[in-house]
Amino acid sequence: MAEIKPCEPSVLYNLLNRSGARLAEINYLCLIDARETQDYRTSHIITAKTVKTDSEGVFLLPEALEVDSMQHVVVYDSNTSSIQEHSRALLCARVLSEVSLSPVLVVIGGFQRFSALYTYLRTEKIMYTITELESLKQYPVEILSGLLYLGDEKQSADCSLLREMKISLIILLSQQSMKGNQTIVNFRVDDSVKSDLYSIFERICDLIASTIDSGSRVLIASPRGRSRCSAVTIAFLMKHRKHTLQEAWSLVLGCKPDMRPNAGFLQQLEAWELHLMGRRETDTSLL
Predict the structure, then answer these.
(1) Which end of the chain is more exposed for a tag (fewer CB within 10 A), N or C?
(2) Is the domain of 148 the same as that of 77?
């Protein structure tokens, strides 16, 4: 029997927005809406499926749903606040846990909390083709809830996406310049092992901190959203959240598994840790 765990809405948000059109993979995500069918039909989280109950209220999983092959299994109801509750989400999670090989995650706060945070991920659409799943808009991953996001250059230039997410500041690490309605600070840095990010870590980190401390949202972006922007995000977490390199690396990797600062940036992050902490805490060969 799989373990049942609570999960914050941001965890589901990041699962829905991982790069590479993952939602089109049939065994990537099983997202179950455990609310009443009429509530589901009114509005639900994108790609979620509804499930029926028998005459005794026991949840019945569709035969076509191969839960045991899924990498991620997530369930939500209207507003469950704890996995100790006797709620529809927990009742459904118990049924899922009997067949799942992955932990079953229960979204804390349910649809009410998730949809309040991410209004743009609600829908009435029930069925998707593979092509539609592949073409779903992908949003930047969330590093700090409601404050800090990491994405690619295409996302940083998408005006409708930026409005939906209420992004106030874009930190763009690219040789390309860009204009928009948001404040854009462009640092012209190549994704090369010889490029110098270290010398601008202090300035960027303080700029991000001053913005999010005012309650505004920041998007850190680079062309592919993997190397430069993840290095800067890690540097920020090390300085302003007092994380070691290992802790910051793990946090960002958990949100965006395909992130990877190049070898030169990793060396600079080692030096940044030494500068901030007075000693090296992280064995980078284990990262």
Answers:
(1) N
(2) no
Last-in-domain residue among 101, 134, 167: 134
User: Which of 134, 161, 181 finishes a domain?
Assistant: 134
Whether residue 60 is predicted with pLDDT greater than 70 in this model: the reply is yes
Contact 103, 74 (CB under 8 A): no
Q: How far apart are CA 180 and CA 169, in angstroms?
A: 10
**Is the whole model's pTM more than 0.70, yes or no?**
yes
- For the stretch 112-117, contacts whose Cβ atoms lie closer than 8 Å and that sit 24 or more positions apart, written own/partner, are 112/78, 112/79, 113/9, 113/79, 114/9, 114/12, 114/13, 114/45, 114/76, 115/43, 115/45, 117/9, 117/10, 117/13, 117/145, 117/146
Q: Which residues are CB-contacts of 117 (< 8 A; sequence separation ≥ 6)?
A: 9, 10, 13, 145, 146
* 99-126 pLDDT tens trace: 999 999 999 999 999 999 999 999 999 9
Count of domains for the chain: 2
Considering the domain architecture, whether residues 148 and 204 belong to the same structural domain is answered as yes
Q: What is the DSSP string of 202-269?
A: HHHHHHHHHHHHTT-EEEEEESSSSSHHHHHHHHHHHHHS---HHHHHHHHHHH-TT----HHHHHHH
Domain range enclosing 115:
4-134
The reply to whether 20 and 86 lie within a common domain is yes
Residue 68 sits in the same domain as residue 172:
no
pLDDT tens per residue, range 242-253: 999 999 999 999
Closest to 232 measured CA to CA, from 287, 180, 283, 171: 171
The long-range contacts involving 126-133, CB below 8 angstroms and separated by at least 24 positions, are 126/41, 128/47, 130/24, 133/21, 133/23, 133/24, 133/47
Residue with tokens 């940083």: 156
Same domain flag for 151 and 238: yes
